[in-house]
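In the laboratory, one determines a bound structure by crystallizing the protein with its ligand and collecting diffraction data. In a computational setting the workflow is compressed into a single prediction: the sequence and the ligand go in, and a structural description comes out. We illustrate the idea with iron/sulfur cluster.
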Amino acid sequence: MLAYRDLPQVGRSSGGRQRVRYVRRIEQIPNIPPEQRDKLKRVTEVYAFRANDYYLKLIDWNDPQDPIRQLIIPRLDELNDWGRLDPSNEAAVTVAHGVQHKYPDTVLLLCNEVCGAYCRYCFRKRLFMNDNDEATNNVSAGLDYVARHPEVTNVLLTGGDPLLMSTRRLRDIIGLLRRIHHVRIIRIGSKMPAFDPYRILGDPELQELLSRHSTSRRRIYLMAHFDHPRELTDIACEGIDAFIRCGVICVNQCPLVKGVNDDPDVLADLYGKLSHIGCQPYYLFQGRPTAGNEPYEVPIVRGWQILREASCRESGLARRVRYVMSHATGKLEILAVDDRYIYLRFHRAKDPALRGALLTCKRNDEAFWLDDLEIVETDRPIGNEPAALFSNSRELE
Ligand code: SF4
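The predicted complex, in structure-token form:
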């Protein structure tokens, strides 16, 4: 069988910059037997597929359980009837086209609807569907909104992946954001350092743009997204180094994904290596109950055990990560689990009354999400709205 490495490899543009080649159809991957490709094509008709030659080369095709393969090659059980397309109800915090505002200081601009490849477990996979129009390259409504809200000190460029946009477009957006004085931090949420490190390494104009706008008083942050230590290739580490040399602060956030990083050894290795290269482990996300994601989900209790075990093995710098659940009501940190209870705290909350609230829930080893848990105690009255959202909670006193 023809192996992927026998295909044309990462190319070089006329300007000298190395360019990855994109693969948009599962039939283009010779390593997958034809009868399997036909079945998987059905999955890609529902949930989009995209990969590139650089990333596909990281797969060990002799291992059917290879974690990199699990991350981007579809599976038939994605078609199981499970989850919702917008599990965190982002629609409820959408204030203009491509603009989300959930916490006072932070606004999200969904400025692109394409990524360097598509992670099978993506919680925003709805963006890649044909009839979805939530993201927009035209950020004028977003910039206008941010300018009118002086409480907004952070803007996150997300999508999709903002680094898939041209450098010229990024220059416009970042330049305009820098003219809004109250915006102190610009965050770029991107998996391009994993999917295509040449995006930064081969683009001096992008490096110059980042250097100019990440200043001693107003930094740019890269919210990188490495899920597995094998993504930290030499060239990917060089990519992170390029961001750091531009004055960009690099942190990493990724979900816990079954078959990819749901193993204490893998997670410890990932966090250790990230700390070595100066990309601080920041958030570990509990997978959201997203349609198509059932094969990738890890129960909360198991996730907490994995992180606890992984954390024991690495230095303090590698274990600064928080294990969080991005629920419709806010970001809850999963603090601890004992024989009877799971303890959660609102790290960020949509409702100001919930900020910092501690929830004690009955231990349930099968639960994937807050909605699966029974809340038995809180450290404050949490009002009617949240009680209605926590559908399985018994009446709170
Ligand atoms: S890079 Fe992020 S937005 Fe893109 S597919 Fe992966 S998880 Fe989704």
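The chain has three domains: 4-79, 90-321, 329-397. Keep in mind that any predicted model is a hypothesis to be tested, not a measurement.
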